[in-house]
Structure prediction request, 166 residues.
Amino acid sequence: MLFALTAASAVVALLLTGAIAGLFYGYSVSVMPAFDGIAAEHGIAAMRSVNERILNGRFFASFFGTPVACAVTGGLLLALGETPAAVLFFAAAATYVLGAFLPTVVVNVPMNEALAAATVPADPDEAARLWAEFSGRWTRWNTVRAVFCLVSLLLVGLAGFVWARS
Prediction:
């Protein structure tokens, strides 16, 4: 029974980590460049809309669930005596928290809130300046989140491999 629960938890951790890594990666390589390619006032409006609509259960499940699923799986693996795989799951959780969760809370969300509160200038050049200041910094930090999520995903995959080989 403990083995089956651990396997299910590992699958959930893998799926959630992959989902959030894909989300952040997708933003850096397609969404933000697309928003950069349209008129600034439209990019600002689109980003504001995304920021409102992303606050939903599906996003929260992957954003908050990833480190929880990784840590729970690590704990279950410890209970099974699978220490090397457990350590890798714990490392995946820590990598995610330090490189994705914290930057989200400290950088990206405050930037989103500032963009939501900003008055979009009527002058297209001023709107372009506002968007350029936001987009460049936001995308750089989002890319940091994507890289850390991908490292976390790699650690989850490696943990599964290590566990399967034991």
Remarks:
- The CA atoms of residues 5 and 27 lie 33 Å apart.
- Residues 124-165 form the longest helix (42 residues).
- The mean pLDDT is 98.
- The radius of gyration is 19 Å.
